[in-house]
Design brief:
This protein is about 60% helix and about 0% strand. The chain is built from five helices and no strands. The chain is globular. It starts with a helix and ends with a helix. Heme C binds next to α2, α4 and α5.
Length: about 100
Amino acid sequence: MKKALYIGFIAMTGLLGATAGHAATAEETYKAVCSVCHDAGVAGAPKFGDKAAWAPRIQQGKDALYNSALNGKPGTAMMAKGGSAKLTEAEVKSVVDLMMAKGK
Ligand code: HEC
């Protein structure tokens, strides 16, 4: 199960690369990279749009969440940039903004 998810994750990251040249929207980046874990709550990831899961995280402040998304959270499955090093800082931040907006 976990392995299949990671393979799917790598395949989708490849897809994102294929669209390089056009700046991905927050939704596209979320779908291509972050949804693998954040749609279903894999490994304890706060689910997209789950207000109860996001409330305590949003309280940490935007900068703390940007920092976790950009640099990862040590000891968790949340890797730097969701494991997709080619994302730009702006792309990652735009997804965090989207996650915070949907989690409020
Ligand atoms: C491999 C699975 C996985 C992927 C892919 C992933 N995340 Fe996460 N994410 C997690 C997990 C697990 C947590 C919860 C970590 C914890 O606090 O225990 C998390 C937590 C977070 C948090 C909250 C951090 C905090 O400090 O509370 C943010 C923001 C976040 N992810 C953003 C993203 C973004 C943006 C992407 C895509 C670029 C992404 N994640 C991709 C697994 C993932």
